[in-house]
């Protein structure tokens, strides 16, 4: 579930360079599948072009003195019933076999594309008729459709080509309809409609570019199926007719003498298999390129934290969560990028910790790393990452699953994407008790209803039978908390749970978290952009910037009520100065922090905030400060922290005006 690795000390994180346009394809061709697909495809292409020119005459020579002979020095694979060389005929048949398969694939893809996009262009009733027709056609086996269309279009090359094409079209059309339906409902398509973009242009400019990659993969793999189907029709005698021949016709002609000379039938059969394998392997290679943009196999150096941080200051005798020197890194074309670099903190039992910072500061990744939710190719490293006394990075996943499933709850920013849209909410909550507490299906569902009541969802029994899309945003957030309460959570990681909620729902949700904390004695790690919300609902605040904690202070210090715990870091004071309050002058321009945070792959040397800080010096640009203790439970990573407790001092770090 989480990718972890041990790394050597002292290695630096490489800065990715601009990727060459063809680099993903070159990387894919270096893989075993890529090498095999390229070799087979080049071989088939060369034979299709050169074989008729080089050996066409030899393949057509009739030798009545060498009828139905076995393999020999003169005839490598023997001869057919007219004394023609099987080896040369198999090579020459490559052109017609591959050309007909590609032609059928092209026609089928074009027809499927039209049928798949028609419902988005036609009026609703006509579109439903097209969709119904496609669904009925998909229900029939492809070979049955091919035989049906072969009878309709007639025996021969043209009829077989059209038959294979129209047998391929319904499946491709169904794929196009499904992909297009997922894109048509997005906001950028609605914006284009409002702007007056016509339906045809809407499809060409906004829909097709967003569904093109899977269609290319499907078409590439479909070419192999078309080759096999075409050979099957020729084998049945309704495909290619004499005097022309393809691999299917050669297989049919050689079947009668298979007991005398097996090579007569095995040679064209092997050609069909190898050519079909070439198309399928090419499809797999294309899928690998369009699905993975940054191949991690090319990265040679493992990531390590670029700067050692001070150990986390423990709270209480037995902290619930201990994080020391945490780093989360992801591979790039030329090295590793570390959005979280050297984070250290602790969370005590029943304590509420807030994590604030601008977008891209590493807040959410820190929460995901603590919850063991960083997926490969991401890598998590830490000197220490313990939850409830259990090391998360070294304990096997099988042993961690019961602990994390019952003692840690995760509240995601968008619970609509966190719930399975195809399952009822009650069943999803009940699954936790079934898996971790061994309850029966009925008892687990009853507990799920009880947990929904606990998070103040009205008509909990009825709501438990509903699907996530039938819940409002606030109710989904509460249901997500209810899922965490199915066990006995000791830590709740809330990743921006109030984002996109109105003020009333936000207040209810925060009260629910507070009640849960009090009732279960659970600790809370609240990740938010809103520093005011964090100050009102947390005991301590971690201020993050460019993947590091720049200040760890008491939440009461954010109000400047206690001079001893007032914020000292220029970034923290700039965030507070840019926060709007009820007495803010509405006629004055909005205060903003000048500049932008650095990209994770372009973090400068020294303090990352130096380029935006009014107190920065040459030392700040050269040396990265290590968090130092400046008071009880107060740490600051700054070479020139503020010493005064005045609120006005932070306003020198903000500018008046809109964002850049």
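^ structure tokens above, recovered residues below v
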């Amino acid at each position: 579930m989480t990718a972890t690795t041990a790394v050597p000390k002292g290695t630096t994180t490489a800065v990715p360079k601009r990727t060459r346009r063809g680099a993903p394809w070159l990387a894919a061709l270096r893989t075993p599948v890529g090498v095999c697909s390229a070799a087979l495809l080049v071989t088939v292409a060369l034979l299709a072009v050169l074989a008729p020119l080089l050996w066409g005459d030899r393949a057509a020579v009739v030798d009545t003195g060498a009828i139905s002979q076995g393999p020999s020095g003169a005839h490598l694979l023997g001869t057919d019933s007219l004394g023609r060389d099987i080896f040369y005929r198999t090579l020459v048949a490559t052109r017609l076999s591959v050309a007909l398969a590609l032609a059928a694939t092209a026609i089928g893809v074009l027809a499927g594309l039209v049928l798949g996009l028609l419902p988005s262009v036609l009026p609703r009733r006509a579109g439903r008729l097209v969709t119904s027709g496609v669904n009925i056609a998909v229900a029939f086996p492809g070979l049955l459709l091919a035989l049906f269309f072969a009878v309709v279009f007639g025996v021969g090359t043209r009829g077989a080509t059209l038959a294979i094409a129209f047998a391929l079209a319904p499946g491709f059309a169904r794929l196009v309809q499904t992909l297009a339906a997922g894109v048509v409902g997005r906001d950028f398509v609605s914006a284009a409609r409002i702007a007056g973009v016509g339906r045809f242009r809407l499809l060409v400019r906004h829909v097709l570019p967003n569904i093109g990659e899977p269609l290319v993969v499907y078409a590439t793999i479909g070419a192999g199926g078309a080759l096999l189907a075409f050979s099957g029709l020729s084998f049945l005698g309704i495909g290619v007719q004499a005097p022309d021949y393809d691999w299917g016709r050669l297989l049919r002609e050689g079947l009668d003498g298979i007991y005398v000379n097996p090579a007569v039938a095995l040679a064209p059969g092997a050609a069909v298999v190898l050519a079909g394998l070439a198309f399928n392997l090419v499809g797999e290679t294309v899928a690998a390129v369009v699905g993975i943009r940054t191949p991690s196999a090319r990265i040679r150096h493992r990531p390590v934290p670029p700067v050692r941080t001070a150990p986390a200051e423990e709270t209480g005798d037995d902290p619930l969560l201990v994080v020391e020197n945490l780093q989360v890194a992801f591979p790039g074309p030329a090295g590793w990028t570390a959005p979280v670099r050297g984070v250290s903190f602790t969370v005590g039992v029943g304590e509420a910790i807030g994590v604030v910072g601008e977008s891209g500061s590493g807040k959410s990744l820190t929460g995901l790393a603590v919850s063991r939710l960083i997926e490969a190719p991401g890598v998590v490293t830490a000197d220490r990452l313990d939850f409830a006394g259990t090391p998360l990075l070294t304990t096997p996943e099988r042993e961690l699953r019961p602990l994390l499933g019952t003692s840690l709850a995760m509240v995601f920013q968008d619970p609509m994407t966190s719930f399975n849209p195809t399952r009822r909410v009650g069943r999803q909550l009940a699954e936790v008790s079934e898996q971790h507490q061994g309850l029966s299906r009925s008892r687990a569902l009853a507990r799920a209803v009880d947990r929904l009541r606990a998070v103040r969802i009205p008509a909990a029994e009825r709501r438990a039978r509903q699907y996530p899309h039938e819940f409002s945003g606030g109710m989904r957030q509460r249901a997500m908390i209810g899922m965490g309460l199915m066990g006995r959570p000791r830590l709740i990681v809330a990743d921006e749970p109030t984002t996109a909620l109105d003020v009333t729902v936000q207040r209810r949700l925060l009260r629910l978290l507070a009640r849960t904390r009090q009732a279960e004695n659970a600790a809370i790690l609240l990740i938010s952009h809103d520093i005011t919300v964090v100050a009102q609902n947390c005991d301590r605040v971690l201020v993050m910037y460019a993947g590091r904690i720049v200040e760890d202070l008491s939440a009461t210090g954010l109000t400047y009520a206690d001079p001893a715990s007032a914020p000292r870091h220029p970034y923290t004071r700039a965030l507070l100065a840019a926060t709007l309050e009820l007495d803010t002058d509405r006629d004055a321009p909005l205060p903003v922090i000048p500049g932008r945070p650095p990209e994770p792959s372009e973090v400068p040397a020294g303090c990352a905030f130096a380029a935006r800080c009014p107190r920065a010096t040459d030392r700040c640009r050269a040396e990265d400060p290590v968090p130092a203790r400046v008071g009880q439970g107060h740490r600051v990573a700054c070479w020139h922290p503020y010493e005064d407790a005045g609120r006005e001092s932070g306003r020198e770090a903000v500018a008046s005006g809109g964002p850049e």
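The chain has a mean pLDDT of 82.
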